[in-house]
Amino acid sequence: MTDQINDIFIQARQGSVAAIIQVLNQQLATLDVRIRAIFSDGVLQLLCEAPQIEQLEQSNLVQQVKHTLEDISPRNIRKVNINSRIVQEQQLLWLDEITKDPKDKLLWSQQITLARPNIFKQIARHFQTNKPKPIPISLSTSVDRAQMQKQNQFQLGMMGGFFLSLLMLVLGIQVNKWLNFSRLDRISTIENTTENTTLQSPDSTIRNLEDTIAESKEAFAQAVRLAQEAAADGKTAQSQEEWMAIASKWQQASQLMASVSPNYSRYDVAVNRAELYQKYSDIAKQEADKR
Question: Which of 111, 152, 268, 272 shows its CA 20 to 30 Å from the CA of 167?
Fold first, then answer.
């Protein structure tokens, strides 16, 4: 079982989209989030689906996906576009569907760039990905085993020598920096103490900012719920009263989006949706006037 998991992780590191999907689904299983993925035009397009909006909270989900992908460090994949929507039965051509109408089809979308692992991790992963597989004992001869042992010893010697050289290089750079900047560090310590004292924010300001962000988050979620209800009602509405009720819901959703603070992480999305929901409200009023 452990070997199978390692094989999937290695395939994901080599750039297999199917393996990447499997690793992400395993990592996000506790959130009840399901992942779909397509590699298109040099960008890994991810679709995150869940039954409830709360399970698709943007900052937490983006952080977990980014952490998992950077841990995998898939070959030739650096740009990732993370899309989010409520789970749907229709799954064919989902990328074309959300590309044509992202504002209406998605809860949110965010593109990230994966950080490259440092030189030590790259070397370790190279040897892990390309390490020779053991030969079954029943098929190997004494000559094969001796040759394999020599090969493993040679690779270990190469790794040890390379890591030792890098370690000496890093130590040399650090010693040089310490000798050149020790005096400046003492001066900057005094300056930083003064600066930190000046830049400290009052507790009340921090609390007010947190309250504002929390209110914006709630307003955003409530606006999305109203928009979903209005869209569903619009499929069956017939009378003037029904269309006026739909227009009212779109209007409320637009006002909630407009109330979102610029400090909220999804402020740009809220601005766009406030304008879009207002247009939908106007359309619903026009339908009501026709009745």
Answer: 152
Select the highest-mean-pLDDT range: 101-105, 114-118, 160-164, 211-215. 211-215
Structure tokens at 102: 């992202």
In sequence order, what are the residues at sequence separation of 6 or more whose Cβ sits closer than 8 angstroms to the Cβ of residue 273? 103, 223, 227, 253, 254, 257
Mind listing the pLDDT tens digit for each residue in 57-80?
999 999 999 999 998 889 889 999
CA-closest candidate to residue 225, choices 263, 260, 262, 252: 252
The runs of H, that is alpha helices, within 101-141 are: 102-105, 119-129
Q: Tell me the pTM.
A: 0.41
Residues whose CB is less than 8 angstroms from the CB of residue 123 and which lie 6 or more positions away in sequence, other chains included? 159, 162, 163
Q: What is the pLDDT of residues 158-199, one digit of tens each?
A: 666 666 666 777 676 766 666 655 555 554 444 454 444 444
| Cα–Cα dist 165/163, whole Å | 5
Distance, in Å, from the CA atom of 98 to the CA atom of 84, rounded to the nearest integer, reads 10
Short-list 183, 274, 268, CA closest to 223:
274
The two three-digit tokens of residue 285, written as one number: 């009023």
Q: How confident is the model at residue 210 (pLDDT cuts 50, 70, 90)?
A: confident
Query: Cα separation of 23 and 8, whole Å?
Result: 8
Helices and strands (H and E) in the chain: how many: 10, 4
Domains of the chain: 2-120 (3.30.300), 203-290 (no CATH)
Helix (H) or strand (E) holding 248: helix 240-258
Contacts of 213 (CB under 8 A, 6+ apart): 261, 263, 264
Q: Is 239:288 a contact under the CB 8 Å cutoff?
A: no
Cβ atoms of 237 and 287 within 8 Å: the answer is: yes
Residue 59, both tokens: 């900052």
